[in-house]
Amino acid sequence: MKQIYLDHAATSPMHPEAAKVFAEALSVHYGNPSSIHQTGRSARRVLDGARHLLASSIGAQDPEIIFTSGGTEADNLAIFGTANAKEGRHIITSQAEHHAVLHACEELEKAGYEVTYLPVDEFGRVNPQDVIQALRDDTILVTIMLANNEIGSIQPIAEIGELLKGTGVSFHTDAVQAYGLLPIDVDALNVDLLSVSAHKVNGPKGIGFLYQRKNTALKPLMFGGEQERKRRAGTENVPAIQSFATAVQIAQETMDEKRQSFMEYKEIFRTVFSENAIDFKENGSEQLPHIFNISIPGIDIESFLVNLDLSGVSASSGSACTAGSIDPSHVLVAMYGQDAPELRNSIRFSFGIGLTAEEITQAAEKTVQITKRLAQK
Predict the structure, then answer these.
(1) Were both Cys, which of 81, 87, 180, 280 would link to 251 (CB 3.0–4.6 Å)?
(2) Which residues are part of the catalytic machinery?
(3) Can you give the pTM of this predicted structure?
(4) Contact 180, 9 (CB under 8 A)
């Protein structure tokens, strides 16, 4: 039985072209980009070309791109790097951020920093005025994600960035889930720092980047060589970076097509549910096209996901799995409260390359069958 993979928001398969480039680069571009001999210079040309393509994908300049091991490191570099570079002990974020941001902020709290965790509304969105009202004289950083990885809600980043102009506060956004699906321009968003990861856009795992606007204060977290303009020590992973750039180029070229397909997939789910009288509610608002997070009254998410997996569909609760049990989603807690039924009956379907409308229909029909079967117990 072929598994229908509907968990692309967690990670995505490598695009065949990106995988091909990665495999070839392992044996061809193995040189150290910092070496001055021919092999090193060849690797440097590949590195520079990839950096240019990735910078262009967000409207940035080449020197503003810092290669990292992925989104988590990029988030940590933005947060700890700002904290180590600026005077002040106050940071603003939201209750619905990715754990790479939340746990980093919690560590800073242990070191004596103060963090304001802004609430979100019932659609998972931050009120820009709440950001401004939370500002203090010692605020050094605001970090709000561009779009949520669990429910897909898109945040008003450009509006927040406009309000922060002239305050001297650095503005970071985690764009990991939105990159490759939304047009992104760092000037239009008014951000100083932006995080991206390759494995969410059909590139390899273990590579990503942090955009750092020119003259934005930031200190490195890793020390050693002078790679990445002394901002991130360590020999660059040229094969992964070249593969990353290939995946991004394809993502940029196919963005409109993918968005249309994914919106059609959502509509298939809605239609199948409606035809079978399945009661459900969509979580979030103004969402990314590939995330369909729904609440189905009366189901238990753990048994539901197990049954779905056994039927050949890979999906997720969107929340952390710890020791074999699913913890309540902190995003849904922020939206609905600690005792909301949505915490126990929400499931996330997320779409990506390789899927067909027929497979989506099959997945929706299997979801209906499982829902009705579990409701009878």
Answers:
(1) 180
(2) 321
(3) 0.96
(4) no
Assess contact for 120 and 335: CB atoms under 8 A.
yes
Does domain 16-253 correspond to CATH entry 1.10.357.20?
Answer: no
Domain boundaries, given as residue ranges, for the chain: 4-12+255-375, 16-253
Q: pLDDT digit of tens for each residue in the chain (377 aa)?
A: 789 999 999 999 999 999 999 999 999 999 999 999 999 999 999 999 999 999 999 999 999 999 999 999 999 999 999 999 999 999 999 999 999 999 999 999 999 999 999 999 999 999 999 999 999 999 999 999 999 999 999 999 999 999 999 999 999 999 999 999 999 999 999 999 999 999 999 999 999 999 999 999 999 999 999 999 999 999 999 999 999 999 999 999 999 999 999 999 999 999 999 999 999 999 998 899 999 999 999 888 999 999 999 999 999 986 654 445 578 899 999 999 999 999 999 999 999 999 999 999 999 999 999 999 987 76
| Spatial separation of the C-alpha atoms in residues 255 and 259, rounded to whole Å | 6
**CATH code assigned to 4-12+255-375:** 3.90.1150.10
